[in-house]
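ok so i was messing around last nite and threw this chain in just to see what happens. nothing serious, just curious
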Amino acid sequence: MALRDEGLAAARHAVEHLFGQSVLRFQAYENLVKAVISEHRLSARMTDIEENRADRAAKTRQKTMGTLVSEMMDSFIVAEGNESLRDDQEDAPSIAYIFQLSFPTEEFARITAEHRDLVVLRNSLVHHFLENHDLWSVNGCLAAQQALTSALDQVAKSHEELRCWASDMMTARGALADLIRTPDIHDFFVHRRVPWHIATVTHALHAAAMELAGGDWVPVNTATNWIEEHYPEEQPGAYGCKSWRHVIHESKHFDLQVCKVDGRREAWYRPRNREASES
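result:
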């Protein structure tokens, strides 16, 4: 009888050890999901960034694991074609970004199912473990150990996968933060001065001139038609300009002239020099 009691006690001790490991691993997974939800997007005035981040983190801490996973699958991890644009801009100088991972439909379905299964598994572990397992027999304890080992493997796999994605996100966010701290970007936010030498529109104008005229004179209208096809998001208004000629003039990276062609006045431009327009 004593040996049976000792065997049962040892089996139960192993269950308790595995149960504790499982709870801790699920907490680590949940904390990682909270960090991802808190940090993967931001939309705030420049003066309110830290307050906005703190408020978002506080709200995230109050959410259940099920809610967190659902939000993560709708915002951070998405199916291809469902990527979100940034949030609406504020009237004052502001910043808005969102980091997302997009996957093919089948892969997204697999990832979604695995993370939602973790929610069910965690709830069963925390709320129904004693109901589901007989811890008064050695065989029952062995079955419980097997279930806990399987749960540990499952949450460890998803946790490690998410940890790698979160690490990539934080690396990208760090690069963005470094960019924002550069004098050019700071000057843009504070004084609204466009850093033309790194602006996408400058690159687009240079690319158009190279493609259409080998870097020589090209009609502005011809170039802008090319830009609309290859850089559809680039518009003069985004840079505080009223027209493409205005952009070309303000950037100071191009020569601009008006010529008569077939009796009509037409604006032409060319890169001032390749080093300036590519710098």
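not much to say yet. Residues 275-279 have pLDDT under 50 and may be disordered.
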